[in-house]
Automatic annotation (TrEMBL):
The name this protein goes by in its record: UDP-N-acetylmuramoylalanine--D-glutamate ligase
Organism: Hyunsoonleella aestuarii
Coiled coil region boundaries: none
Lineage: Bacteria, Pseudomonadati, Bacteroidota, Flavobacteriia, Flavobacteriales
Mur ligase central domain ranges (all copies): 107-285
Keyword Coiled coil applies: no
Length: 443
């Protein structure tokens, strides 16, 4: 019996363990940290062997195959020893895709992945049997085991792609590529770019790559490293023959001379970046033969994603906006770009080697006060101290929101858009966003 060892007992790990057991593997789950109670119960109920707060190497190095959680860096000693022993180390996406012949839409990029994946699923679910997985919701492996959808929309991070080798989505989307997570890529942007393009490495001319045709990083990489896929770019700036572009206030999507036109005036999501997300999602829907009417209606009634430019409450004519999912500078760029009123900006957290320069124009134009929310705010104070009259630091969300309440006047926005990871003060970006919303509701 083949031995599958799962490193990491979270959503993707436990999903993989269940699918592996069903497919006849002897499964062992090992987590260096604590495994959440709900996942322990699943493992115990399914009689799957597990350990926590340690990695017993004797029980790991005898594996035939290893599924590694995306949070575990490849640089650690244990993973290096597995590689040296020629034991395949793969991601959940790679493992689960071997057990389904569903049509897969794989979505990656530095920003907009979650919104584009959720929106794509929303456009397809009326007409198709379709699951939403990857970085969101229930694990892909678990859905392959329990639901057996005919189609999947997968949000896939570069960390997951790094451990993919034969994975081949029929439709791939790269929303954009900007510097992020460079600490995992030897601080080399090229390594990170190559990682994102792994989504298309096994595609053939019968598969599709949808990408931002205005993104110079993507366009340059494609020019120097051609892929086999049929290319369908989307653009706000140029006319596209095969793909999507903006013509005045209409999105025009053409695939093999079959064109559909969508008005942008009725889009439920605001901001230029969301026109791009809508273009990418609608191109998928058009490829998969969803009716124009369905696409149009779905774009109009889409509710958006929690923690992504989420309007929380209006108090004394001040709008509070939760953009906790903005864990890098480019995401915050979109947030500040879409602000149409003087803004009190709450920023900070664990800096991943950020360069804040692209934000300067918006900070000068739109930001009236900055509240730094992090353990170490020195870089923010140094970078923005001269640009705004008020810059304050704190390490408590409740205090940050109270300060914002005092500083903001009628007609202003209060925006939580951290541009940083959350791990210095919070469990994750969801925890950060929920604390923000609770603090606003308690004002």
């Amino acid at each position: 019996m083949k031995r599958l060892v799962v490193l990491g007992g979270g959503e993707s790990g436990v999903g993989t363990a269940l699918l592996g057991k069903e497919k006849g593997y002897h499964v062992f789950v090992s987590d260096k940290g604590k495994i959440k109670e709900k996942y322990k119960e699943v493992l115990i109920h399914n009689e799957i062997e597990w350990e926590e707060e340690t990695h017993t190497e004797a029980k790991i190095l005898n594996a035939n195959i290893i599924m590694k959680s995306p949070g575990i860096p490849s640089k650690i000693g244990l993973v290096q020893r597995l590689v040296a022993a020629n034991i395949p180390v793969i991601s959940e996406i790679e493992f689960a895709s071997k057990f389904t012949d569903a049509t897969i839409v794989g979505i990656t990029g530095s920003n907009g992945k979650t919104t584009t994946a959720t929106l794509t699923h929303h456009l397809l679910k009326g007409d198709l049997n379709v699951g939403l997985a990857g970085n969101i919701g229930d694990s892909f492996a678990k859905q392959v085991l329990e639901r057996g959808y005919k189609n999947y929309v997968l949000e896939i991070s570069s960390f997951q792609l790094d451990d993919c080798y034969s994975f081949k989505p029929h439709i791939a989307i790269i929303t954009n590529i900007t510097p992020d997570h460079l600490d995992r890529y030897d601080y080399k942007f090229d390594n990170y770019i190559s990682s994102k393009f792994r989504i298309a490495m096994n595609q053939t001319k019968d598969d599709y790559l949808i990408y931002d045709g205005d993104d110079e990083v993507i366009v340059n990489h494609l020019n120097n490293n051609p892929v086999q896929s049929t290319l369908l770019p989307f653009s706000l700036e140029k006319t596209i023959e095969n793909g999507a572009y903006l013509d005045k206030e209409n999105i025009k999507i053409t695939i093999d001379n079959d064109q559909i036109i969508m008005p942008t005036t009725t889009l439920s999501l605001e901001g230029k970046h969301n026109i791009k997300n809508a273009m990418a999602a609608s191109t998928v829907a058009h490829l998969l033969r969803i009716r124009k009417q369905t696409i149009r209606e779905s774009l109009e009634n889409f509710q958006g994603v929690e923690h992504r430019l989420e309007e929380v409450l209006k108090i004394n004519k001040v709008q509070y906006i939760n953009d906790s999912k903005a864990t890098n500078v480019n995401a915050t760029y979109y947030a500040l770009e879409s602000m149409d009123a003087p803004t009190v900006w709450i920023v900070g957290g664990e800096d991943k080697g950020n360069d804040y320069q692209e934000l300067f124009q918006f900070v000068n134009e739109k930001v009236k006060a900055i509240i730094c929310l992090g353990v170490d705010n020195e870089k923010l104070l140094k970078t923005f101290g001269g640009m705004v009259d008020i810059i304050i630091e704190t390490q408590f969300m409740s205090e940050a929101v109270k300060i914002a309440y005092k500083v903001a006047e009628a007609g202003d926005n209060v925006l939580l858009s951290p541009a940083c990871a959350s791990f210095d003060l919070f469990q994750n970006y969801e925890d950060r966003g929920r604390q923000f919303k609770n603090a606003v509701r308690n004002l």
